[in-house]
């Protein structure tokens, strides 16, 4: 695995994906400032994020798996701080899965109110707090990990590109559902003439 960069390569992949997520999540967050007319954009970016987030979860999960399996270079690198590992990481993972699963469910069912909407909003609040802590703590190592010259960099960038292109394809394919959700939300608040 050294030819692919080993644990440093894994950290670099995680850093590249994290950087992409910061940008995409900032765009997604900006839609919340005026969600009514931006619901289609919100849904589009949300669907675009799904494969990118999946790659981040796989990359972070790989590090955890290798560490607990006793892989020497991962053990040498050590575990994340106990507070992050025991409390923050599980909340980040669970709230991320719930947030995006409910988002997909809302898009699939064209719901603009009800228990799934409430769960989506509640999971966002939990997710925002946990991810905020995660980003503050982990962003310190981000610039250095992005600059490392390691074997396997092309493969890592390829994985990121595939996740982004896949996300764009999924978002594009689900655009009609996002438009339908937008129309339903607009009609619900009396903004649409339909």
Can you give me a brief rundown of this structure?
The chain is mainly α and 194 residues long. The chain has helices at 6-31, 35-68, 72-77, 82-109, 115-138, 142-147, 153-173, 175-188.
What descriptive keywords fit this protein?
about 190 residues, mainly alpha, 8 helices, about 0% strand, globular
Structure classification: mainly alpha
| Shape descriptor | globular
Low-confidence stretches: none
How many structural domains in the coordinates?
A: 1
Radius of gyration: 18 Å
State the end-to-end CA separation: 58 Å
Number of helices: 8
Instruction: Indicate the proportion of strand residues.
Output: under 5%
Largest sheet: none
Estimated helix fraction: over 70%
DSSP strand count: 0
* Average of the residue pLDDT scores: 90
Order of helices and strands: HHHHHHHH
What's the arrangement of secondary structure elements?
Elements: H1 6-31, H2 35-68, H3 72-77, H4 82-109, H5 115-138, H6 142-147, H7 153-173, H8 175-188
């Amino acid at each position: 695995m050294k030819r692919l960069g080993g644990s440093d390569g894994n950290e670099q992949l995680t850093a590249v994906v994290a950087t992409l997520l910061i940008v995409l999540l900032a765009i997604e967050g900006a839609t919340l400032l005026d969600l009514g007319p931006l619901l289609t954009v919100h849904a589009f970016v949300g669907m675009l994020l799904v494969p990118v987030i999946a790659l981040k979860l796989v990359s972070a999960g790989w590090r955890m798996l290798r560490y607990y399996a006793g892989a020497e270079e991962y053990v040498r690198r050590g575990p994340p701080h106990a507070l992050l590992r025991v409390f923050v990481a599980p909340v980040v993972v669970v709230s991320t899965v719930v947030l995006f699963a409910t988002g997909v469910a809302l898009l699939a069912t064209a719901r603009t109110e009800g228990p799934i909407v409430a769960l989506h909003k509640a999971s966002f609040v939990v997710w925002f707090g946990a991810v905020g802590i995660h980003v503050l703590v982990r962003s310190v190592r981000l610039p250095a990990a992005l600059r490392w010259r390691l074997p396997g960099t092309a493969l890592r960038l390829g994985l990121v590109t595939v996740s982004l292109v896949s996300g764009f394809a999924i978002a594009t394919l689900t655009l009609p559902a996002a438009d339908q959700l937008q129309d339903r939300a607009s009609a619900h608040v009396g903004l649409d003439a339909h």
